[in-house]
Write a structure and sequence with these properties.
The protein is built from 9 helices and 5 strands, in the order βααβααβαααβαβα. The protein has about 170 residues and is of the alpha/beta class. A 5-stranded parallel sheet has the order 3-2-1-4-5. Strand 4, helix 8 and strand 5 form a beta-alpha-beta unit. The mean pLDDT is about 95.
């Protein structure tokens, strides 16, 4: 029995798409495809990502609250919180990250660790524009956390290809 992979979107994927190459007025098919795949159970995001997007005052915030609202999962479940705690302990123990990087990672308004904790707890794939960097010190990047915790992580284009989304 095979299970279909489910993708969890980072806020930067949505923000970058909305503000550049998949702007709502240029490529509405992109946003329609995200909703279609969410309805099909293939992608979603988390409440903390929605909170980050809700801080804005733009078309993305409208789309999130009108068209994608039901596909933001809660990060308050015990398995997610347990993974989040492990990630905080891991980050704190990493000597190569600066104190500022650790503080930013632990900030309660930062969705990144919650996103990865949710993906780990639910066996999902993280989708982010960030790239893995083993030498980074000034920031704790999502792909670095994913690698440390055995969570699959892809970029937007890899997800689009895997889901066979064609924008025409």
């Amino acid at each position: 029995m095979s299970t279909r992979p489910v993708y969890v979107l980072d806020s930067d994927v949505l923000m970058t798409a909305a503000r550049s190459y998949y702007a709502f007025d240029l490529v509405p098919a992109f946003w329609e495809a995200l909703v279609r795949e969410a309805r099909n159970g293939r992608l979603l995001s988390v409440d903390r990502v929605k909170a980050e997007i809700d801080r804005g005052k733009d078309r993305l915030k409208e789309w999130v609250n009108n068209d994608f609202r039901e596909w933001f999962e809660s990060t308050s479940a015990d398995p997610v919180v347990a993974q989040y705690r492990l990630m905080m302990q891991w980050a704190s123990a990493q000597s190569h990250f600066t104190d500022a990087a650790k503080a930013e990672f632990a900030d309660t308004g930062n969705a990144d660790p919650w996103l990865v904790a949710y993906a780990k707890a639910t066996n999902r794939i993280v989708v982010t524009n960030e790239t893995y960097d083993p030498n980074i010190r000034r920031r704790i990047k999502i792909p670095n956390v994913c690698k440390a915790f055995g969570v699959d992580c892809v970029n937007l284009f890899e997800m689009l290809r895997a889901l066979k989304i064609q924008l025409s």
